[in-house]
Amino acid sequence: MSDQPRHPWISFTTDYGTADGFVAACRGVLARHAPGVSVLDISHHIPPQAITAASAVLTQTVPYLPTAVHLVVIDPGVGTTRRGIALETSSGSLLVGPDNGVLLAPAERLGGITTAVELAEPDWWLPEVSATFHGRDIFAPVAAAAALGADIRAAGPALTPAQLVPAPTAHSSRHGRNVRAQVITIDHFGNLQLALPAAQAPWHHGEPLLITTPTGRFTARFGRTFGDVAEGDCLVLADSAGHLAVAVNTASAAARLETTRDQILDITPAERDT
């Protein structure tokens, strides 16, 4: 393969955190196998095993990155019969990671899958493979090879999109002016991103709302930005990714509502609470 990188960028997303050496070990493999390629970290603080959250973060981020190989290690099935896969998209970007659904939505955002393969060829891996660290021993060397221009079709047998494991489905529904939606991500500020496009919001600007969670009921308003309500007050708004979100001006909605990822919220017009 050529020493000139086909893709000068590899993006890197994991649930490893940064307290241990896992991220550094993977980045070391990338640096040794593809020294001319730069690594752009999307996040290493995805909640552990959170496939839905990781998929959302990637889908909302990859459109703003250069054409790249996207290395994704959210892998609760590491060491089991789950497949490792590489996907090429019509945009020219590739994704490398486990076949557990985490790559599918970002692949669609990148134009759709044109090639999919199972990572079954050991020559693409490190010589010794740990049963619990495929991010270092399989996915990182494959991503490095792909960045340098290796044809991923040589990495293993071809797969059809229908053979890939589907992503977990986040719950959302709308009945009239009532919304029920799952929390898919909680950002650093404690904002709750919901599994419903903001375009489907059935309320008008400034309308008072009632949010019902597993822990209680909270008043809010439908707004455009945080400053539409007083400091410490709750609002529902469209976030920067076009999802409905729940926020508290200058505070954490996750803390205020005592809400965690994957919980279901009901949002209704406040005047209907009788």
From TrEMBL:
Gene3D superfamilies: Bacterial fluorinating enzyme like (2.40.30.90), S-adenosyl-l-methionine hydroxide adenosyltransferase, N-terminal (3.40.50.10790). SUPFAM superfamilies: Bacterial fluorinating enzyme, C-terminal domain (SSF101852), Bacterial fluorinating enzyme, N-terminal domain (SSF102522). Residues 182-260 form the S-adenosyl-l-methionine hydroxide adenosyltransferase C-terminal domain. Pfam families: SAM_HAT_C, SAM_HAT_N. Residues 10-154 form the S-adenosyl-l-methionine hydroxide adenosyltransferase N-terminal domain. The keyword S-adenosyl-L-methionine applies. Keywords: S-adenosyl-L-methionine. Belongs to the SAM hydrolase / SAM-dependent halogenase family. This is SAM-dependent chlorinase/fluorinase. It comes from Actinopolyspora mzabensis.
